[in-house]
Amino acid sequence: MKKISSFLFLLLIIGSSLFAQEKQIKNVILLIPDGTSLAAVSAARWYQRYNHPEITRLNLDPYLCGSILTYSSNAPIGDSAPTTSCYMTGHPSRAGWVATYPPADPKNDILPMDPAKAYQPMMTLLEAARITQNKALGLVFTCEFPHATPADCSSHSYNRGKYEWIVPQIVHNGIDVVIGGGVKLLTPDLQNYLEKEGYGVALNDINKFKTYNGNKMWALFRDMDMSYDIDRDPSQEPSLAEMTQKAIEKLSKNENGFVLMVEGSKIDWAAHANDAAAIITDMLAFDKACGVAFDFAEKNGETVVIAVPDHGNSGISIGSSKCSNYSSLTKDDLFGPISKFKTSCDGLVAKLHATDASQLKAVVYDLTGISLTDDEYQQLLQCSDYNRSTLSNDERMKGSKLTQIVAGIVDKHHCFGFTTGGHTGEEVFLAVYDPTPNRLTGHHSNVDLNNYMRQSLGLAELDPLSDQYFAKHTDVFNGYTYTITTKNDAPVLEVKNKKTKLEIQPNTNIILQNGKEVKLNSVVIYVDKNNTFYLPQALRELL
């Protein structure tokens, strides 16, 4: 009897193990703290511990498990466009390129690139999950919505700055939940399209953001980017954690699962500005969003959560040679000054522009704890763009900007160091929750991370989908009569046979067949560099 019981117990253990290995992943949440070097994470952890000694860990900490090497196709240091593009598509791309295959650069390419694919839009993880698995999609961010990282998930362009291309693509690409900045970029026509498609659209309306019950929503705040968290008015703008919670709440109602990208966008912006206080406080805001995602995943049991930056920025360090004996400074010396900041450098500059010269010292002290020296006070008065200065234009320094002078003054009053105001090429941290035995650990490349997310969702290779949905019009309509004309300053592809006429415009999922609208499952892309439309192979069947 004991032998039988032991045998049954063994079968139970084996069965449980097999069940765990066969557990299906329905959802993937990718959290990206843009431009976050590891030292920025350390600074945030120390800052939090200094101000709240009872909190010694970040929400990220239990899930830290490795590092990711992130790069452009032909350079070790990348910007957000090619780096997140690689997370989304599995291929590195060039600086400034959004989910688009780069031209080959054989002498410099880190991985071999196929010259024949240059300029082809590449299917993203989000697009593939929607098209092949009917998953819900979400984007949460604190920049404006066509900025590089959200654009990488939902649009295609060889120029990240071409908002006139990227904005309509994102609107027409079937993203169920979009929450972030960029109110003035959503034109009335695009807003009308969203509302006709059943979206609740909340523009600078935090009450509607909180109370709208529909599952499809666009909620945008401020004209372009949202505020740094340290400057945020909670009555006007939600936190990144609140936006993440709202997105998960809506997306998780889809029985097929969802894919959500959450970006702490302005950590990167603060790093470019060498603004230590904004870096730290936005990183902590991002960590709270991570807490929301990891808590959901652990309760849900069918969700993989990944937190990973797209690249480093600024070469930030805790300690700097500008401070004597910096390696012996106490926690009060290092984190006391920065903890007195009530605003970002941008916020301080905006306040100073609205402050009379006689009150500059008082306002700076109140917002930063910095007692301006007479020399620093004079530097502010000498700024050419400070309209409240008591100095004449001739007495000011031509070309000097309040933003630059403020940043220089602030930098002298803390002991954080910066090597640059640009991106850096070190590997970035990796944190993962995975309820299966397949958790990604150790050191990997950006290509590996795409493979991990794709395989977690059970998605097939993305390249065949790129070929299927982003084929050249010359191939799709080979043998038919087609022309490219210009209407309203935009290219239009017209294809004809005896009974059918197709009119195809770029950056939308809607085409005309004999004057009637046909909705596609993907957006059409036009590339002016090679005068080519990229569109679904299935369009040939309409003829």
Could you describe the 3D structure shown?
There is one protein chain. The chain has 543 residues and is an alpha/beta fold. The protein has 19 helices and 22 strands. α2 packs across α11, α3 (80-89) runs parallel beside α5 and α13 crosses α16 (402-411). It is globular. 47% of the residues are buried.
Lateral arrangement of strands in the main beta sheet: 5-6-4-3-7-1-8-13-2-14
Radius of gyration using CA atoms only: 26 Å
**Main beta-sheet strand count, sense and barrel state:** 10 strands, mixed
Q: Overall mean pLDDT score?
A: 95
Question: What is the helical fraction, as a range of percent?
Answer: 25-40%
Structural class: alpha/beta
Instruction: Choose one word for the global shape.
Output: globular
Poorly predicted residue ranges: 7-21
**How many angstroms does the end-to-end distance come to?**
73 Å
Number of strands: 22
Taken as a percent bin, the fraction of beta residues is 15-25%
Count helical runs: 19
Jot down its keywords:
single chain, 543 residues, alpha/beta, ten-stranded mixed sheet
Concise summary:
The protein has 19 helices and 22 strands. With 543 residues, the chain is an alpha/beta fold. The strands form five sheets. Strands 5-6-4-3-7-1-8-13-2-14 form a ten-stranded mixed sheet, with helices on both faces.
